[in-house]
Design goal:
Blueprint (H helix, E strand, L loop, with lengths): L10 E7 L6 H20 L7 E7 L5 H6 L6 H9 L2 E5 L11 H14 L4 E6 L9 H10 L4 E6 L3 H7 L6 E4 L7 H4 L9 E7 L3 E7 L8 E5 L5 H4 L6 H17 L3 E5 L4 H14 L6 E2 L5 H8 L4 E4 L2 H9 L4 E4 L3 H9 L6 E2 L6 H14 L5 H19 L11 H7 L8 H46 L1
Parallel strand pairs: 1-2, 1-3, 3-4, 4-5, 5-6, 9-10, 9-12, 10-11, 12-13, 13-14
Antiparallel strand pairs: 7-8
Helix pairs in contact: 1-15, 4-5, 9-14
Length: 467
């Protein structure tokens, strides 16, 4: 392998993901991206001492700046970007303009990168539908074609991404999600530890006897639910009342066929709120529900118990695939279809017409009987695109270094070291603050509605008096 001459300057990679989300799937993406980045840098001949990975939220442009446009609220973002040697967006919803404002944060981030001439790579990002007549979409498109943007890859929307591209120097492509490599990254959290029983031999010498855990007689299914308005927000006609009834019917059908099951979320507070709604309004047993999923290692440890998965959220499906657990998913967003087409199991993405317990269970049983097979070329696409993009930035001179093959990559992926106590507290703090923000917003809306109602009642009273 070629060696690359390195200067004394330590390279700085600014990784931007949805790491501050309480959806643990986004935290899995961050961990997978970091592992892949370490592998790429090692592949290129860099020692850990020669570079740093600064992982920050993709919302590095703050809400305060978005609201005020006061330059003082942009200082942190400007400092981080100006000091970076590479800005890398990893799997965050940076294109979203339909009912989110991430597109504007992305555009502002790119304006800073362009200002300081910092190369930018987008790796395995989701792509919203392109709209020629939408000002938000066109605002995003203009910045994506800056000279600083070197590569954009998507996990599910190449045909949409093609419509954004105008800069001929920009490389685009379709790749796998980084979380397809999450199982080896989190392997230490999915191994079942043997039970250790201590006995005394002849009353003197203690002898340890290891007894492996016994597998439950019933196969266990994990059912990942979605927030109450998750489907309707994405223009799928499936309100919360129908969703609630589906989960009741599915639990009954699984029980009828001899399966154990749990209702679970990947941590989003809206999903957990809907789970609580099922308990309070539909008599779902609390013992059948898993709450407080707040770190990726907790999610992997729990998912290791499942023989099959039914999901709405995409990342439990991707994690299941990585862990070789058969899964089926209800389609609430085009990215679900994109993923299952990519892994070669399109029938495991369930259309709205088949949102019923019997059809879902039939599909799940078929998936469990078929198992999970993986195309290593598909898996490697996310790594190889990252490798070539980063090699172009850090090694622009001619080099013969090629990306690792699949087996070598698996051996080089660093293991996730766990979430520290302080990080867990910060994750919970962010989660609670989102709930508080929503509560305050709803309180303000209710106050406004009450005032409108009082004004309308007064208007009606006056109309009656004048009639």
């Amino acid at each position: 392998m070629d060696t690359i001459e390195k200067g004394t300057k330590k390279l700085k990679i600014l990784l931007l993901t949805n790491r501050d989300s309480d959806n643990v799937g986004d935290q899995v993406i961050e961990a997978s991206d970091i592992a892949l980045l370490h592998a790429v840098m090692g592949n290129l001949g860099y020692a850990r001492s020669q570079y740093t990975i600064n992982s920050r939220a993709a919302s590095i442009v703050t809400k305060k700046y978005m609201a005020s446009r006061d330059p003082k609220h942009l200082k942190t973002a400007e400092k981080e970007i100006s000091e970076a040697d590479l800005v890398l967006f990893g799997g965050a919803p940076v294109f979203n303009y339909g009912y989110q404002n991430f597109y504007e944060r992305t555009a502002l981030t790119l304006e800073l990168a362009q200002k300081y001439e910092k190369p930018v790579i987008f790796s395995a990002v989701g792509i919203e539908a392109y709209n020629e007549n939408n000002a938000k979409c066109q605002r995003l498109k203009a910045t994506l074609n800056f000279d600083c943007v070197k590569q954009i890859t998507t996990r599910d929307g190449l045909e949409r991404l093609e419509k954004y591209k105008e800069n001929e120097q920009l490389t685009i492509g379709l790749v796998s999600d980084p979380a397809v490599f999450s199982a080896p990254v989190f392997a230490s959290y999915t191994k079942k530890k043997p039970v250790v029983v201590v006995k005394k031999k002849f009353g003197i010498f203690p002898v340890k006897i290891e007894i492996p855990p016994t597998k439950p007689a019933k196969k266990k299914i994990g059912i990942f639910v979605l927030r109450a308005n998750g489907f309707t927000d994405n223009k799928v006609d499936f309100p919360k009342e129908e969703a609630a009834q589906l989960w009741l019917d599915l639990m009954a059908e699984l029980k009828k066929r001899g399966y154990s099951y749990e209702l679970i979320t990947s941590g989003h507070f809206g999903d957990e709120a809907f789970l609580d709604y099922l308990i309070r309004n539909y008599d779902v047993k609390l013992s059948k529900c898993v709450f407080n999923m707040n770190s990726p290692e907790e999610l992997f440890a729990k998912m290791a118990e499942y023989d099959g998965v039914v999901s709405c959220r995409l990342h439990p499906s991707i994690i299941s695939f990585s862990m070789n657990i058969p899964a089926v998913s209800l389609i609430w967003n085009t990215k679900v279809v994109g993923f299952y087409n990519g892994i070669g199991y399109p029938n495991r993405a369930i259309e709205r017409a088949d949102f019923n317990a019997v059809a879902i269970t039939d599909r799940l049983e078929a998936a469990m009987a078929e198992g999970v097979e993986k195309d290593t070329a598909y898996l490697m696409s996310v790594y190889e695109s990252l490798f070539h993009g980063i090699r172009q930035v850090f090694c622009p001179e001619k080099t013969t270094i090629e990306p690792y093959d699949y087996d070598k990559l698996l051996s080089e992926l660093p293991a996730f070291k766990g979430t520290s106590k302080n990080e867990k507290l910060l994750k919970l703090q962010r989660k609670f603050r989102r709930v508080y923000e929503l509560c305050n917003k709803r309180l303000d809306q209710n106050t406004e509605l009450k005032e409108e109602i009082l004004a309308l009642k007064e208007e009606i009273r006056q109309l009656k008096e004048n009639a």
